[in-house]
Design a protein that fits this description.
By secondary structure, the protein is α/β, with parallel strands linked by helices. It has a 7-stranded mixed beta sheet with strand order 5-4-3-6-7-9-8, sandwiched between helices. A two-stranded antiparallel sheet has the order 1-2. Helix 3 runs parallel beside helix 4. It has a single domain, classed as Rossmann fold (3-Layer(aba) Sandwich). The longest helix has 17 residues.
């Protein structure tokens, strides 16, 4: 199917609520879009359309990068579990030399391409699971990766290994259940507008976290 045409038909190009410098193809309603995606592909049990929404952790990371461009300027960046590509787009706007946006959903890849084009930046979508790999990224940014226990534990260990190797690793998270708080420290906090159908409130307190230095 033409995923890009589907995304254009089912979303609107809107400013990200907490990073309005960036426009994204966003959906108004999650359940209906999920149903239409399954109908279009003739498959049941597809993953939710994470790519169609600006999640709290990603918005916090995007805002932080835009406000502190020195974090990424001239560096190679991985935006892990990117969804819409929001954080990678923020990195490119802040002067990154290269930004890769990884996700396992092919719809996310299409959304990344459309969103990058809408913002006049070049991204390298990676539609594969990069957890456990190290391709020498200078900066690794990961938003909203702590909502499922097994994934959160595995991804946290991998991110910590990248940090020990020398990468700058930042995690955007609004306090999800499986966030490894005992290994992290918050360096910034934002009040982020979110989609009420997906969250328990309209404004989430989302933090940018880094790993604590090992003793």
């Amino acid at each position: 199917m033409d995923r890009e045409a589907f995304i254009r038909a089912q979303t609107r190009l809107l400013p990200a609520p907490h990073a309005p410098e960036i426009a994204l193809h966003l959906a108004d309603e999650a359940t209906e879009l999920w149903r239409k995606t399954e109908e279009e592909l003739g498959e049941i049990g597809l993953p939710p359309p994470f790519w169609a929404f600006a999640w709290a952790g990603g918005q916090a990371l995007a805002r932080h990068v835009l406000d502190h461009p020195e974090i990424v300027a001239g560096r190679t960046v991985l935006d892990f579990a990117s969804g819409s590509g929001l954080v990678a787009i923020a990195a490119m706007k802040a002067g990154a030399a290269r930004a890769e946006a990884s996700d396992i959903d092919a719809f996310a890849g299409a959304a990344m391409r459309l969103n990058a084009e809408a913002n006049g930046v070049a991204l390298q979508p990676r539609i594969e699971d990069l957890a456990g790999r190290d391709e020498g990224w200078d900066v690794v940014l990961a938003g909203d990766v702590s909502y499922e226990r097994d994934m959160a534990h595995a991804v946290t260990d991998w991110l910590d290994a990248l940090r020990r190797r020398g990468a700058l690793v930042l995690i955007g998270d609004p306090g999800r259940t499986y966030l490894a708080r005992e290994r992290l420290e918050a360096i910034a906090e934002y009040r982020v507008p979110v989609t009420r159908a997906l969250e328990d409130c309209e404004i989430k307190r989302a933090q940018v976290w880094r790993f604590r230095e090992s003793p």
